[in-house]
Amino acid sequence: MTDPIVSLKGINIRYGTHHAVRDVSLDIAKGEVVAMVGPSGAGKSTLLRAINMLETPASGTLHVGDFTFALDRPLGQKDLLALRRSTGMVFQQFNLFPHMTVQRNISLPQMRVLGRSREEADRVTARLLERVHLADKAQAYPARLSGGQQQRIAIARALALDPQVMLFDEPTSALDPELGLEVLSVMRELAADGMTMIVVTHEIAFAAEVADRVIVMADGQIIEEGPPEQVIRNPSLPRTQKFFRAILERH
Amino acid sequence: MTDLLTNWADWLPQLLKGLGISLQLTGFALALGLPLGLVLALASSARGPALRWPAIALVEIGRGAPALVVLQMVYYGLPSAGLNLSAFLSGAIALALTTAAYTSEILRAGINAVPQGEVEAGQALGMTRQDILRFVVIPQGVIFAVPALMGFAILIFQATALTFTIAIPELLARAYRIGAATYLYLDVLILAGLVYLAVTIPFGWLVNRAARRLGSHLG
Fold it and tell me: What domains sit in chain A, N to C, each tagged with a CATH number?
């Protein structure tokens, strides 16, 4: 792979005695869409959250965009902010700021983090609201929106900072299926526009259709990876076969 | 009965003047005490022990000591430290200290009620810790705390009665003065009680409304 935009080397994450992520290495190319799947407790979300250092690995090397950090000692505040500015994250529970309008949710981080003027930030916000098909909701408060609408706002808020890579942590798990679809369709458009995306998900159909690569994790390790047609339809390990069979039976 | 009502009509203007001073004391106590309470709330949840422990000590002393003791200490204690304050200012400062200690706990509870996910969202966006506090945590923590803070405002309004011990001519002090002059202590104290109730009951009703509105807005 030439010049990965995200590169993890020898990442270990521990909670006390629990070894949540074990020596994981992973390269992701610019524009690639990677789906991370696996049973709960496999360490997928933990690994994803290490990419913007919401989880602190005990050891390893992290490279995102222009930044490379050795993780055996704590990151300085400046490095940490720079790293987070180059990544966007979408959470399972949306995590919009409920005391702000939709417009302020998206504009405020641009003004505080990128130093954009209010006018410029609001222009970017308006454009992004078009893009997630919620242009009419600029003045609404999050509590008045459906879960699917809130999640699309959350995607717009992350995109507004021009991230080099978007991290999705089970973006549809808290949504009814039909509301999940509108979120997945926005993500599909994003992928088609060439955004680099890492998506922790149980939506196997989405992974099969949109992902360039599927990564299967179990017990804190990557046990299988490859193009979706290979990993999902023809998994090589019994453990992976069992996992996908269980998911297909549920749907 | 007509005697009582005539007396009350005579006394009421005096007591209302006293009420004005009680309300002023309440206003000062809240205006000085609430910002200090917020500072103590943030400091007592700070990571650094140099900030955290002094803040916790101040809060515990301020809540542990009776308001009357704090009041007497400020009034009689500060002059011996070379600081001469008027009775009114001493009273306002003492009540503000009590306010700060109690409201810091109320505000801390409000701040802790802000979901961790929103803090993480701010972090993931690359916002600084100060910005997350300023724009995400404090505004919501304060909103969450509003009903309890309003309830506390009623208590500190009642506590202004303690300042009659340092000769501030507030509501209760004036009632006593009338009682001393007429020996109709019970009659005038009942009227004073009614004046306190005329403030606390409508305000308490506002508190309940605020709590309900809050529930529907953020829930």
Answer: 6-250 (3.40.50.300)
